Amino acid sequence: MTTQPRLVEVRARILKENDVLARQLRERFRQAGVCVVSFVSSPGSGKTTFLEKMLAQLGARHRIAALVGDLATENDAARLGRACAQVRQITTGTICHLDAKMVAAALEDWRLEELDFLFIENVGNLVCPSSYDLGEQVRVVLLSVTEGEDKPLKYPTIFNTADVALITKMDLAAAAEFDLEAARHSILSVRPGMRILEVSAKTGQGMAEVGGWIESLRAG
Amino acid sequence: MTTQPRLVEVRARILKENDVLARQLRERFRQAGVCVVSFVSSPGSGKTTFLEKMLAQLGARHRIAALVGDLATENDAARLGRACAQVRQITTGTICHLDAKMVAAALEDWRLEELDFLFIENVGNLVCPSSYDLGEQVRVVLLSVTEGEDKPLKYPTIFNTADVALITKMDLAAAAEFDLEAARHSILSVRPGMRILEVSAKTGQGMAEVGGWIESLRAG
Question: Which of chain B's residues have a Cβ under 8 Å away from the Cβ of A127?
Fold first, then answer.
């Protein structure tokens, strides 16, 4: 197709601009002393429920804010707002991912130095967010037990660009006949040595461990 | 951002080229007398399992082939191949959707007039595939009970471009505390009048009805 080289060229330029802006964001976060953790997964893997519970768990000891990305609706901001964090929704329209520019715009009037943590919930998508650095310190990819153990093999890039994998909805593992060892094998075959944590936001399984790990990010 | 207008321009041109090619495909399918149904959903909504069972169910009475899209792996083609259909995997690399050109290339040496049905399984993604017409006669969007009832509100475009919604994994509805009426309400509020069918590929619930509906597409 004759347009292909031009598209690649434009896409490369946009990604470069994103990387430059993400580096600026990362430096701004560092200077403000805020630890920024982003969360990415398929639609419906439980990002918002996990964050609701985690905000409630850590909110008493830390000053936490959240940015949440979605194509449409402000439902997630409303849900996280109930957990008492400072929350802003980024509504992307038809854009399938957050980028550094959207994050910078959403944070423009925030006083980052008053925060300990900023959580960024990306649009539900296992493909496109992998290309966009948001300036985060740590990227967490969520995989729910109902999605199938092979998803890391099918969406390797997102697992490769993430630092930690959270296996979510462990309460449904038996009903979904989830094979934890097969899932761990899939994750580790695309990202050897990746840290894998298992949680159920519903029953609380693993939430203390994940909370402790998040707190350690700031200490470290 | 200075690149924005140029990106939009290039994207619009690519979409236009896709639409032209999709129209040619649609005409080719019509002339060959093959009914083409595409399936799109989040990763892990159960597209492949549904298709495995549906191919087994309809395969004795109809000549069926399938194209399956994934970023990486040929797992799905291997799974569907066991159900005795002619199958080809389209491996997209980092591309987040199928387009008409990929479909045309994959079908190049196929004798479509020897087929009754062609099923196309898109890449698991609720955002990007919505922009790409594949020349299909009917587009089916799948929503599994574990993803949450609000997903149609959050990903309205994909539901708007689909003709029928399949609610999958109904066997997990109770464990996931799925609210069927809320999900139906979400779907119908973004696409009034949309046909909604409920299935479990695991227990067989609803599969005969969906199979009958697919067969009726060819009769009609």
Answer: 71, 94, 96, 123, 125, 128
Q: Which tops the pLDDT comparison, A13 or B170?
A: B170
Residue B166 is classified by DSSP as E
Is a pLDDT exceeding 50 seen at residue A95? yes
What pTM did the predictor assign?
0.90
d(CA A1, CA A139): 35
The band of B136, judged by pLDDT with boundaries at 50, 70 and 90, is: very high
Contact B124 A128 (CB under 8 A): no
CA distance B164 to chain A (A): 19
Q: Cβ contact (<8 Å) for A146 and B1?
A: no
- Per-residue pLDDT tens over the stretch B16-65: 899 999 999 999 999 999 999 999 999 999 999 999 999 999 999 999 99
Mean pLDDT over all residues of chain B? 93
3-state secondary structure chain A: CCCHHHHHHHHHHHHHHHHHHHHHHHHHHHHHCCEEEEEECCCCCCHHHHHHHHHHHHCCCCCEEEEEEECCCCHHHHHHHCCCCEEEEEECCCCCCCCHHHHHHHHCCCCHHHCCEEEEECCCCCCHHHHCCCCCCEEEEEEECCCCCCHHHHCHHHHHHCCEEEEECHHHCCCCCCCHHHHHHHHHHHCCCCEEEECCCCCCCCHHHHHHHHHHHHHC
Chain B residue numbers with beta carbons less than 8 Å from the beta carbon of A189 are none
Residues 120-149 of B with CB under 8 A from A: 123-128, 130-131, 144, 146-148
Selected residue of A146, A159, A170, A177 to mutate for chain B interface (largest B Cβ count, 10 A): A146
